[in-house]
Write a structure and sequence with these properties.
Layout: H1 3-7, H2 24-33, H3 45-57, E1 63-67, H4 70-79, E2 86-91, H5 95-98, H6 103-108, E3 111-115, E4 141-148, H7 159-171, E5 175-180, H8 183-190, E6 205-209, E7 219-223, H9 232-238, H10 247-257, H11 261-281, E8 287-288, E9 296-300, H12 305-312, E10 316-319, E11 324-328, H13 335-349
Parallel strand pairs: 2-3, 2-4, 4-5, 5-6
Antiparallel strand pairs: 1-7, 6-7, 8-9, 9-11, 10-11
Bound molecules: pyridoxal-5'-phosphate.
Amino acid sequence: MTAKDRKDKANRHFASDNWAGAPPEIMKALALANAGHAPAYGADEWTARAVKLIEKQFGGNCLAFLVSNGTAANVLGLSAMLKPHQSVLCSSVAHILVDECGAVEKCTGARLDPVPHMNGKIMAQTLEPFLLAAGNQHQSQPAVISVTQATERGTLYSIDEIRALSRFARKHGLRLHMDGARLANAAAALDSPLRDFTRAAGVDVLSFGGTKNGILFGEAVVFFDKNLAKDFPWIRKQGLHLMSKMRFIGAQFEALLRDDLWLRNARHANAMAALLRAQLEKIPGVEICFPTDINMVWCRFPERAIPKIQKRFSFHIEDPATRMARLVTSFDTSKADVMDFAAVVKQAVDGK
Ligand SMILES: Cc1ncc(COP(=O)(O)O)c(C=O)c1O
């Protein structure tokens, strides 16, 4: 693939929002942070400013730590919440369960208990049976509920649904963890400040995603219950995510949060998914699978059309049995990309 090919708009795909690079604001921030030397391991000015900006987004009086990827944010955040004899209730399609290669189990020793979901969401009223093990010395003890906001199916928990999960957790002595790899998309879709559906709704520990929102690499673990953060500097170091050149994550987060770049990126990605869905809905033979709340459209294409579409655009068929395709838009997806994709789908479905 040549540099020219890479620049070509036809080279944008719908496989995932982490297939995109980074916008110029982020590259500029990285270039500026690259001048001269700076203290390592997060003792630099960029990290200090980024952490402050993140904490401010959630109303202050919380503690944010930078790590380099989303799996680490989840695994390390959960490590601060769990003992090896405990368990986590999460949806049966949760990224921590399905797509982190057992990292949570390996690093915490705790068990993940899959809970049936509706469009990616678990509901407080279905959790009671999962507490039957409580007090039984032979069984893992439920300690954490983990939700993904926005979900792996591209849907959103309402603030009330998160509150209900938090009430349930508190009533039964559990804590609430949130995988917010796409938290920015959720905020844009809910048209709500980040703190309203995290901290204010009762979340204790949050993975706050940057990578899918337009930075090259970087996520934050945010502790609203500061007691849980007590050992986190060591958990992060032992967990291999105390980056020596942390300033390059800090600089990116700072640029992302200043002037609401994060929100503009998320709004744009969501709008492109809405447009994509609207175009696909017009094509007979394409079946939409879930509500499209954020920057993700789930659909089924006729089987024979799939290779033709994939010749031109990459996307994942998440489940070969059901043929469900996951299409993800990014901060840099253009209207032209969406219209090109829809035209290719139409042709492929029509057998051309
Ligand atoms: C919901 C969710 N959580 C966590 C992650 C993990 O991110 P990473 O691939 O950076 O480890 C992803 C990435 O796809 C994700 O979709």
